Hints:
By secondary structure, the chain is α+β, with helices and mostly antiparallel strands. 22% of the residues lie in helices and 22% in strands. The chain folds into four domains: 131 residues, no CATH class; 137 residues, Sandwich (Immunoglobulin-like), CATH 2.60.40.720; 104 residues, no CATH class; 183 residues, EF-hand (Recoverin, domain 1, Orthogonal Bundle). Helix 7 runs antiparallel to helix 8 and helix 9 crosses helix 10. This is SH2 domain-containing protein. InterPro entries: SH2 (IPR000980), SH2_dom_sf (IPR036860), STAT (IPR001217).
Amino acid sequence: MSVSAPFLVLDENKKMMLLPLTLLHKEAPDPVDTSSWTQVPSVSTKSKFPLQKWVHVGCEVSRNFMRLFIDGNIEGEQFVTSLLTKNTNPECPRKISLFSVGGDGYSVQGFIQCAQVLPASDHVEHHYMKDPPLLLSVNKSSSSGIKLDDDGVWQASCREIFSLDVVLSNAIGQPVHKDVEVVASLLYADTLVEARMSEAEAPLLVRDEGVEFSSGDRPIKLLNGRSSFKLKISQLSSKSDNRLFWIKFGIRNAKDYPFLQAVSNPIRCISISPDVRPLSVTPKRLTNIDHLSSTESPDLLQNTSSVKRIRLGKESVSGSEESYQQCNSRPQTSRQFENGNGMRLHEEDNSSTDSENSEMRYTISDSTIFRYCLGNIIDKSLLLKEITNNSSDDEVLEFANQVSLYSGCSHHSYQINMARELIAEGTNAWILISRNNQHVLWDNVVYEIEEHFMRISKCSSRSLTHQDFELLRRISGCYEYVTQVNFEKMWCWLFPVAYSISRGLINGMWRSSSPKWIEGFITKEEAEHSLQGQEPGTFILRFPISRIWPHPDAGSLVVTYVGHDFALHHKQLKIDNICESSERYMDAKPLQDMLLAEPELSRLGRIIRSH
């Protein structure tokens, strides 16, 4: 058979169609007239066919019916009329067009693996799990040292270390253990040409065991299906400043297949002058004006005279929320008055105290404060470990106040003040868990994690669930075995959350079981999925998994809700002094009541899990 209509078609709406077979079904379309392909009886997917990912497609075709299976699930069935009689011996065609291969308007560019013709006795859906193909991807939720711009582009500073994990998995999401190496390269986003900074230095550097190498000379070995990269972009020329880049990852010595390659989000690299001199005097304090963007709701964001209102922070950028963003909380010079609810009102004090501050000298130098303010998450973490080991509690407290003053973000003080306890608790926990072993089974870690969490959160009445532990495992980046690096990464997320639950107004909400105001540890994607199709005002509370200590918002609560425009919104709760002791809030109005008093929040949603 030299001419035939295609067997499978992607229509203009990106839905896959299974068409009747030429010479077998009376309803088969005209091979030449492409318009007939959409007019004949067919089986079509209910939603758009996913692109740039592996999809298992199964077709069951007989004389009288057709069935289409996607990823092991039946999408639909269509009865057709056979051209063959009972006594007819069908002549099987020698060639059938699997996909349309016509002009540019009809062509499909893709890859097919393990195409098989099965006997009628086999069940198509049973082949979904057999020998799934491989896919290399960037685990964006594990990134650190990268900020997210308002346009959804990642921002990294030249000569600053940032971390990315690359995962090799199969089509059904299981990690694949292969003895291969992954190599990284830097590309211009507009031309896809490998970047060139200067002849003296490679454009992209990899740090391995404390030593920096050109990324092309230092591939990272895949371990348990994951390669962890510590990367640094070289100093840019003025022509490349603010230009967009991609970091491309590929398996070394593998064929140039797109599914064995992965790229990061577009990255805007910002040059930082290396000639910055340390501060010798206290800088002028930042202006106490916090402007609202045009996209923010005045009712939710502005300070109001009502002390019964909470503040929701700036809405998260759409797309990947799981990235580090700057905090917009400004410290203020003020006289504070408390009302009966324990919430604070501020009276502005315009008198300058810079002259007084400039005369003060602290053991921790101005240059150290400056380094902390400009450093990324990894830099801040290492610096805090050094400071807590060599400074008194009073010095750490003063350091926290100075960082909050200079950076313009009061939330930094929460993370700095909890540093000593976080490090000590984490060190003791790992000693108990590991018992001097470098690798520990995850199942053996779970009990100790829960015990420490319940003690720190001051809530022994609520245990962690299986879903909570699975999210903690995801944050740690481990699989069957846990290393100290995995544990510390998980601990730097879990401790601030437990600390927040133990303090202020959140503890009562965490204890509540009916209704369950906080349903445990959930992702942004789970919250969005659960709110699909819900009424405006429905909301879910969650701890964002990207806010890892010492990010200024580590341990914070985010409310995900359906707006009056039926769109999903994500805003961070900003409650004054929420990290102070719960005794200050004995007479306060419950946090849930303050939430429901917000005009855009009316009822609590429920988490719907896909598994």
